[in-house]
Input
Amino acid sequence: MKTNLSSREVIDINSQQIFTLEKKLYKGEFSIESVGDYLPGNLLINDLNEIIPTYINKSGCNILKHSVDELKEQGPEYFKRFFVPEEVNVIIPNYISMLQKQDSAHIYNYVQRVQSVSDASYKWYFASAKLMYTPGQTISDKMILIVNEVNSLGLISKKINSVLEESDWMKKNFKKFCRLNKREKEIIPLLVSGKSSSEIADFFCISHLTVNTHRRNIGDKLEVKTFAGLYKFAVTFGLPTLKSYIIFFVLSF
Output
């Protein structure tokens, strides 16, 4: 892997990694405590209700020169102490939007400056953030983030890939999956559950023609023509099951 990456390459690689990491944690392949300190770079988990970190690996704590408990105690001062206010004023509303929308596939990529405690200077970091779910959970208030200094992204990304052991199929098809919009991602679990266009239209209160347009777009974007191909995307990228949707809609009313 190149050490000098384009902006597009950075976004693609980091999105793949945060997606893969969250799915492996969801499946119980390892815990955040068992992998966090061995993962190159900085790994965090934020509580979106209070917008404070509840977990930071050793690498992140070493940069901030504080333990997780010390950072928790700072509360809102945490952001004032280490980050640029103008950037925080953009990032936090995006966090809140993710909490409200509960899109399990959405990844928020952004850059921010982090203040070095040792010399009071700022360094540029690239972050990838995603809601973090546990089995059976349809609403999450936890966010997992991979955050690394911009100048070291190429080398660190290579090491992260080695730790995560991402599958070739997922890496090859991740860009296709990212082409889908939110509604298309919502429709796929119903399609693989055997629901007809009419049933899907009733489920989402949209027209039969709109569903057919979504089905056509899904096939074109994912480049799949068979049920097996569509099912593999649904399973690999952890799209919610039909049962999860029913629970979500019941809780929403």
User: Anything to note?
Assistant: The chain has two domains: 7-164, 168-252. The first strand starts at residue 42 and ends at 47. The chain has 13 helices and five strands.
